[in-house]
Design brief:
The chain has 184 residues and is mainly α. It is 45% helix and 9% strand.
Length: 184
């Protein structure tokens, strides 16, 4: 059972953008019993988010995609969907050391499709900041166009829970330094 199962599947982990992320994660060779290590910094670069350090810029999705090995462009509809999913998967990897892609969905049947996300403090701080921004400004995000008000409140609540889980990971990476609350 996945640790993130309580969030995964409806709002987080249940969108078309989730399928695109899973396609990205599955776009590698897997070896039996050895998780494929994926660097979050590289993943953000692959999705054209290499210069996405202005959190306000991620509220409206523009040109976020990855190019698969066969040259096919896969677009992300809402950047926040991708970033919530990545954050939840980081929590899963933090708790269990890995995640089996078939558990995330997407029709992947290869039981060897296991990943581990490697995240540095800069990317983790960015993701925490984005989740914090979404919690306080969820109606500024383009996801609001697709979700009723009650759903937006529930998604913000789940983001708050995920963000709380990420605090421990960030503290470990920063050597238990004080964690500054993110602001606009």
């Amino acid at each position: 059972m996945m640790y993130i199962e309580r969030w995964w599947g409806e709002y987080i982990g249940g969108t078309d953008d989730t399928c695109t992320l899973i396609d990205y994660l599955a776009n590698r060779e897997f070896k039996m019993e050895i998780p494929a290590e994926i660097n979050v910094k590289n993943m953000l670069q692959d999705f054209q988010l290499k210069n996405a350090w202005e959190i306000k810029d991620l509220r409206q999705t523009k040109d976020i995609y990855f190019i698969s090995d066969n040259g096919y462009r896969q677009d992300i509809g809402c950047a926040i969907n991708l970033l919530m999913d990545v954050s939840a998967i980081i929590v899963e990897c933090q708790k269990n050391g890995k995640v089996c892609l078939p558990d995330l969905g997407g029709g992947i049947m290869d039981k060897n499709a296991v990943i581990s996300l490697k995240v540095e403090k800069e990317e983790l701080a960015l993701l925490r900041g984005i989740l914090e921004d979404f919690i306080h400004h969820s109606y500024s995000y383009d996801l609001e166009e697709f979700c009723p008000e009650d759903d937006m409140r529930e998604i913000a609540k789940q983001c708050k829970e995920i963000n709380t889980e990420l605090i421990g990971q960030l503290e470990n990476l920063m050597g238990h330094e004080n964690i500054v609350k993110f602001q606009e």
